[in-house]
Amino acid sequence: MNISIIGLGYVGVITGVCLSSLGHKVFGCDLSKEKVKMLSNGVMPFLEYGCEELLKKSILNKTFSASTSLKDMLDESDLTFVCVGTPSLNNGEVDLSSIKKVLKDINEYLKNRDRWLGICIRSTIPPGTINNTVIPIFNVENYLNNKYSIAFCPEFLREGNSVNDFFKPPLTVTASSDNKIKMLLNELWSSIPGKFQGNEVSFEEAELYKYTSNAFHALKISFANEISLISKEYNANPNVVMDLLKSDTLLNISTKYLRPGYAFGGSCLPKDLRALSHLAKKNNLVIPVLSNILKSNENIILNAKNHIIKNSYGAIGFAGITFKDGTDDLRESSVLKLIYDLSKKYDKISVHDENIDINNLTGVNLKIWQKFIELIEPVVYEKAEDFIKSVDTIIIHGLQENVFKEIRKSNLKKNVIDLNEI
């Protein structure tokens, strides 16, 4: 395949050199004459183990070349990767000026091109950029004349390990404007030895995933460092603590707890986060990641409150008030906190929970229930059927299978708000 790479920075060079080593004919383009000269002579413009050897082999095999002429590179290409920089401005906004300029140049070039060109953005861009910035740059005439297709394929290359990352990617994410460029990219990625696992998503999902991935990596590093600060104050080896954490692949290093939903609660998570914050404060440690988790959780409750106020009507009722499914535990239930907040606006709130048997509540759980009844004075329904008939808006937390079953059976039109879907 004939491929051009626009922007010979880190991403562009690694992408171009690795593809050329597979036998694809790659044409690199950059404004820097010095960078073009270095690459043309088989010299890497930065340190990346294993890449210079591949570059020299590709030059010898005549599968890689570099130039400052965009037109010359595009003339030879079926597919072009846009890999220019998208740095941060002082206010944190992403600077898209370079990518806009390149795309405007490509748009002008397409007016005189007599065949189709696949354009794949490889630069990291904010969600909404393809639909709101990239596509509007191109002339309608070029689109109607089938002169181009747009795709976005974020890179996941770690400096110092990028060659290995390219040939053994953790996953490949692609968003495409049409099937033509989608199939072309699938063909290209399938040329990499090994099992190809493609993930076709929307432009916005692909754009946001790149930021999500990097934010998660940064979060893991910051989390480990804050645990390390606390560990050292108590003569605990932070590496042992983190190794124990990583050894649990059922809950810790797994898909558990990584599904978007409603706020957490219960007898453990809130209490233990407060304990860690107290230990840090006691030892004059600053742990902003750990200390702000509860604040983040409170924001989820506030967001749910605002959503319910905006989208509910008539009498409201909550189906599921325990802190999670499969238990009657009410301790630090985020649903109860939400009901307390909403009780200031709604005179009457109904509740039902198939996990709660009022007659079997004991100890702290019973006290929480009694306080809830005293302060909120909710209308409590033991049967899902009676609960559904009494309310117009049903706010559901958890599975609550009996409620869903009764809704379907009754054929009553109800406004259903699922807290896990807000």
How would you portray this structure in words?
With 422 residues, this protein is of the alpha/beta class. The protein has three domains: 2-201, 3-Layer(aba) Sandwich (Rossmann fold), CATH 3.40.50.720; 204-249, no CATH class; 296-421, Rossmann fold (3-Layer(aba) Sandwich), CATH 3.40.50. Helices cover 47% and strands 13% of the residues. It is built from 18 helices and 13 strands. The chain has helices spanning 10-21, 33-40, 51-60, 70-75, 97-110, 129-137, 140-144, 162-167, 179-190, 203-233, 238-247, 269-282, 288-291, 293-311, 334-342, 363-376, 384-390, 401-410; strands at 2-6, 25-29, 64-67, 79-82, 117-121, 148-152, 172-176, 198-200, 316-319, 349-352, 379-380, 393-396, 415-418. The strands form two sheets. Strands 3-2-1-4-5-6-7-8 form an eight-stranded mixed β-sheet, with helices on both faces. Helix 14 crosses helix 15 (334-342) and helix 17 (384-390) crosses helix 18 (401-410). The longest helix is centred in the middle third of the chain and has 31 residues, at 203-233. The model has no long low-confidence stretch (mean pLDDT 96).
Radius of gyration: 28 Å
Indicate the structural class: alpha/beta
CATH superfamily of the largest domain: NAD(P)-binding Rossmann-like Domain
The whole-number mean of residue pLDDT values reads: 96
**In order across it, which strands form the biggest sheet?**
3-2-1-4-5-6-7-8
Q: In percent, how helical is the residue content?
A: 40-55%
Total DSSP E strands: 13
> pLDDT below 50 for ≥5 consecutive residues: which ranges?
none
What is the name of the CATH topology of the largest domain? Rossmann fold
User: Could you say how many structural domains there are in total?
Assistant: 3
For this structure, what is the CATH class of the largest domain?
Alpha Beta
- Oligomer category: single chain
| Percent strand | 5-15%
N- to C-terminal distance: 45 Å
Which CATH architecture of the largest domain? 3-Layer(aba) Sandwich
